[in-house]
Amino acid sequence: MRPSERAPDQMRTVKFTRNYTCHAEGSVLVEFGNTKVLCTATVEDRLPGWLKGKGQGWVTAEYGMLPRATGSRTAREATKGKQGGRTMEIQRLIGRALRAVVDLEALGEFQITIDCDVIQADGGTRTASISGAYVALCDAITWLQKNRRLKKNPLHGQIAAISVGIFDGVPVLDLDYAEDSKAETDMNVVMNEAGQFIELQGTAEGHAFRRDELDALLALAEKGIREIMQAQQQALES
Amino acid sequence: MRPSERAPDQMRTVKFTRNYTCHAEGSVLVEFGNTKVLCTATVEDRLPGWLKGKGQGWVTAEYGMLPRATGSRTAREATKGKQGGRTMEIQRLIGRALRAVVDLEALGEFQITIDCDVIQADGGTRTASISGAYVALCDAITWLQKNRRLKKNPLHGQIAAISVGIFDGVPVLDLDYAEDSKAETDMNVVMNEAGQFIELQGTAEGHAFRRDELDALLALAEKGIREIMQAQQQALES
Amino acid sequence: MRPSERAPDQMRTVKFTRNYTCHAEGSVLVEFGNTKVLCTATVEDRLPGWLKGKGQGWVTAEYGMLPRATGSRTAREATKGKQGGRTMEIQRLIGRALRAVVDLEALGEFQITIDCDVIQADGGTRTASISGAYVALCDAITWLQKNRRLKKNPLHGQIAAISVGIFDGVPVLDLDYAEDSKAETDMNVVMNEAGQFIELQGTAEGHAFRRDELDALLALAEKGIREIMQAQQQALES
Amino acid sequence: MRPSERAPDQMRTVKFTRNYTCHAEGSVLVEFGNTKVLCTATVEDRLPGWLKGKGQGWVTAEYGMLPRATGSRTAREATKGKQGGRTMEIQRLIGRALRAVVDLEALGEFQITIDCDVIQADGGTRTASISGAYVALCDAITWLQKNRRLKKNPLHGQIAAISVGIFDGVPVLDLDYAEDSKAETDMNVVMNEAGQFIELQGTAEGHAFRRDELDALLALAEKGIREIMQAQQQALES
Amino acid sequence: MRPSERAPDQMRTVKFTRNYTCHAEGSVLVEFGNTKVLCTATVEDRLPGWLKGKGQGWVTAEYGMLPRATGSRTAREATKGKQGGRTMEIQRLIGRALRAVVDLEALGEFQITIDCDVIQADGGTRTASISGAYVALCDAITWLQKNRRLKKNPLHGQIAAISVGIFDGVPVLDLDYAEDSKAETDMNVVMNEAGQFIELQGTAEGHAFRRDELDALLALAEKGIREIMQAQQQALES
Amino acid sequence: MRPSERAPDQMRTVKFTRNYTCHAEGSVLVEFGNTKVLCTATVEDRLPGWLKGKGQGWVTAEYGMLPRATGSRTAREATKGKQGGRTMEIQRLIGRALRAVVDLEALGEFQITIDCDVIQADGGTRTASISGAYVALCDAITWLQKNRRLKKNPLHGQIAAISVGIFDGVPVLDLDYAEDSKAETDMNVVMNEAGQFIELQGTAEGHAFRRDELDALLALAEKGIREIMQAQQQALES
């Protein structure tokens, strides 16, 4: 039995709220149950130094957690004077996943920065971030198109992400914090709309996982991602 | 005429939403019009080194802005590797103001940290932070009392804060960003429930201000603070 | 009775020594009693990046304390790897105050940096810094004029600063360390030669201050600033 | 055709040289073709603060690259003042993988730190590091046993790691730099001696990968890891 | 001809002013011509962690330069966020030289920190610092003795330091900045009262120096150090 | 008797292995007995900002130690977030010594960076670094010449370095760690092929050293450097 009494293949309620704040070119609050992440997309017409004059744009991401997004207070990284390894790992993952569906040459010499800031954490913040970042990215690209800054749509796919894991011996979908902290295996999966893999990151926490367990986890992930993609589409169409 | 078409002595709508997030001992979203700050209070039973064994507690604050809380993106301080001067100045101000109404000995050996994170900025983030931080602090102290960790109530006053300034030659109350960026004088006032001053920080941006202008500004501030205090009380009673 | 046996409205001896060191375009040792601050002004013909090509100059300030300027040794900020919040707050204040009397367009594309380094501290280092920085700034501008680098004088006013506070229930002028560390209210006031306010920063340390106390403090500040301005004038004329 | 003319399922020559340096409790130079990493294991009887008094030990890893391990010089992280995101990601991965085969309670209150320093890089430095780190860890544990500091052997498994990827449309084993920089998909796999997964990290660089491609990659990885494990065993027995 | 018109073996005027500031246990302004360094000695009864409980004390030094001690402004190290290599090199040298004449066990569990802050620079700041630091150290030890904190005098020697160099082909004593910046060889010598070497640091700037040049430089250094030691003695006796 | 049973004037075995790694323009493993340092030379056609457009090149050095090059583990500087004073001192010394034999104008607008990374330490790492760096520098300059990037050879001399010291009252050559940690005096000498001094750094650790001791140490150093220079020549000719 899962702590949340969900069925093994049952997602938490997924919700995307667009235009959550007023300044950004894209601003989406994504909720996976109690996990809430604000994803904002910023369009700038300046590029990092190493990309200048190469006739292409860039999509990057930064990740942060409000200090009390978590059960006990997490020290503020700005105060500590550096981002931790977990933060860097996550923001590199988000940026990489987004770039997998963007034609950087078609984007032209714009940089889009997606900031994913966790307002409230209950497991799965990195997969919620990726899923919400995609919606914010869509809005930013639509903004560029409305302002006639792009010749063609640089977006050539849809992505979403979900965590799966083995909890108490059973493969389960969309782990919350109560499960995540005790899971024997934890896997984050990013897929595109064709059900192909963009990223796959599995970690054995308690014991190594077998090939048949991997297969079960991937099947769960595919189901979850399909549901998230529907929610993304509905949000984008509303 | 103010850009927002408000009367010179008219506040923006002030709103306090308690329990905005689920983990913190106090969690308040404060809104002054489009300015939105999440204030969370964390209670910990460990103290900074220099306070250990002195038979008293501590109240401190940290301040941050989400990168796209502002019209153009502000670089993340965690990425830059340090907090800027403005951030430090503001968080020192918030902490000092809160400590003015707390009996640190009555608090016992607890530390309460108030995190003020700006979700959306439209001027007045520091005064909104102080006003919201007070409500979060009340909730954290109530939490301590409910958990029977305090012998007596360490809170001996109420505080709120507002900005006033001279815009286009006219003293005005509660400056939004459009006014703040052009104001000739900008003043932040923190008062207690008796109308006494806790902090007074006035800066001549364009031209020096005269004594009679100061008097007009202080009168406006007093009016605004009285209104905020009513809103704080209503929120705390609800 | 004040620890120094001064009358409530009595300043410490104020002294400005110009050309205290030999390299800077302005170099002033300012003394408020035992508080001694070396203020040097550096003229450079390069500007911070965000100001380039805007047809104006810049005036900024940095503040530091020698480790043993204080009663017990203060850790060196260069060793700790960052400037503390108090330092940043003070140097921002000094820069802002100086810019209030400089026409940055008339300055042309020069940057003047005022370094205020506390050689010996006995309370009031920030107000002594501002008062001394003004004299160093005058010398730097005279240097620019002598070298025919300016078309018109960019200085359009005089500033000085003083601290006032409530000590043992009595409003007093120019707090030394013995008073400052016990004052119930501490206020720093920066004024121009017309008696108008440039900056006003009041903090209730022990108890909130009433409007009539504020009035008394402002009157004391005005008296003190008039005396400092005379000393500045005498120093500049000598 | 692979640039190195290897068959798709052909590893580079793998070599483990024990006792490569003289001071460490374990010191192994691992070579995967031209990729050379020095893995040293340090045993200390002090633990990180958060682990003290919990009756268990810790295994952790740090990763670095000599500046000219690479084709063009990489700036020294000590000079830049921080470790980059890639470094943190890799060292977290190495540490996690090693802990998967160590019973931390059986280790007692010792910390073993594995430093993986890349002397020469030609692709696959993280998987070479993990494979070499395992051998260094074995030597460190043997050292502890010889010195009668352990009651039982804390090591309960063997690990090795390999990279696989899709190069020019073909799944290939053990990518060198020429392949890695052009691969469409890149996957790092850590397995134990039972062929179970410890870590799985796949990234689509060029295009998303399908399920059948994943299956082919995992089969290659399993073959490669079996070969590395034989080389580890031979080195440990020599 | 030297720029200052001094004879090759002629020192600048050397002056030690004790009790230059009021808080430190030793406070000495040392002047070598236009080079002015404030050396303060701080006595604390706490030790660095690695020395605790070893029954001995510690003597250490820190070095800094006011930003405008130099002809053009030097960026403040506190602002840059770290001490430069030159600063570290100098402060390590000062500390090492002082420890050469202190019996650390006789000092007991006290730490004496000597801060050498350059108020005005004209070459030779490191040798002036060492020479002044010695006098400040004497005063700090006298302070400890007067306060009956020491059983025996931990000071067992006198040190002083001077720079020598080859300028325009001629060995000269006590280089000022005009000489230092053009010298072909620059050597700093620290000696004790018996004329023995504590430190010797010679650097060929323009061309390598021969053994006979070294001999000439050492003879000059010995002469200069004898003169500085006399000035130290006179200052300490006054 | 020396711990290593060497005669007082006996060097350890000195060995230079060129082309130790494959990417760098110069790559030399230098061994002084058990001390092993990898020196790589990188040629780049970009210069530090302050040198641009001055028609000359630059030679600089960086120094590092692998964490377990030493008997007990030394914390990684990249993890600590800064290079220590010892590291900075050494890398400044290496760079200065190399520049003494390079005509920077003849080098043209190239920068050569020599990285000296200690693989295994047993005393004398800085002198081994300098001696190995010279060989790597030669190879880098040969590389530039082969690639027809230089009009004339910018190298106008040969350098090598050795440590000497007083151990147990006896002047000895080439101290290993067992001697170095107990030596009363420690001196590092850099000479050119004419037996002239490039750098001389002597430190009295236990007691001050007399002039006759200095003479004995310099004689030993000259002998050692002659031997190292022969080994350098042989390596370069092979």
TrEMBL record, chains A, B, C, D, E, F:
Its EC number is 2.7.7.56. Phosphorolytic 3'-5' exoribonuclease that plays an important role in tRNA 3'-end maturation. Removes nucleotide residues following the 3'-CCA terminus of tRNAs; can also add nucleotides to the ends of RNA molecules by using nucleoside diphosphates as substrates, but this may not be physiologically important. Probably plays a role in initiation of 16S rRNA degradation (leading to ribosome degradation) during starvation. PROSITE patterns: RIBONUCLEASE_PH. Pfam families: RNase_PH (PF01138), RNase_PH_C (PF03725). This is Ribonuclease PH. It comes from Thiothrix caldifontis. One of its GO terms (biological process) is rRNA 3'-end processing. The keyword Transmembrane does not apply. Residues 10-140, 158-224 form the Exoribonuclease phosphorolytic domain. Keywords: Nucleotidyltransferase, RNA-binding, rRNA processing, Transferase, tRNA processing, tRNA-binding. Phosphate binds at residues 86, 124-126.
